[in-house]
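Below sits my pick:
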Amino acid sequence: MRNLKVLCLLLGFLCCSAIAGPKDDAVQVVERWAKAFTAADVETIVSLYAPDAVFMGTVSKTIVTTPEGIRKYFEVALLGKRRFVASFVQSSVTAVAETAFVITALDKLVVTTEGNTEEVFGRVTFVVAKRESNWKIISFHRSAMPS
């Protein structure tokens, strides 16, 4: 009986640790996205999305479904006179499979334009999935926080 308890504990530990790794990998994609956003690194941002990703940015007027469309969105948003610092105020990670996670967050953007700074809050959802050997954003939506 003692051996059965030890075996059950060991199996439980192995199952939990197997899921913790993929979750951390998915979260790291979102952390890399935030760093690239702050650095206005459009190439890195685009590389984090799957080729068939679905994208809806804060000011998107259509659903974007191509890497070129995502690139254009961030070139317009990040390569102008405004500078951004992105951070997450609160987040939640939900596993939908061992290789797919929904990361939902409240974010804060510190926006600086010609020396004037303001804080802008929003709601963002990333769906991150493992594609072959890489973790990629397969769906993204951000909207402004209602006042």
Observations:
- Residues 11 and 17 are 10 Å apart (CA to CA).
- The domain at 2-144 is CATH 3.10.450.50 (Nuclear Transport Factor 2; Chain: A,).
- The helical segments are 2-38, 42-47, 67-78.
- The chain has one domain: 2-144.
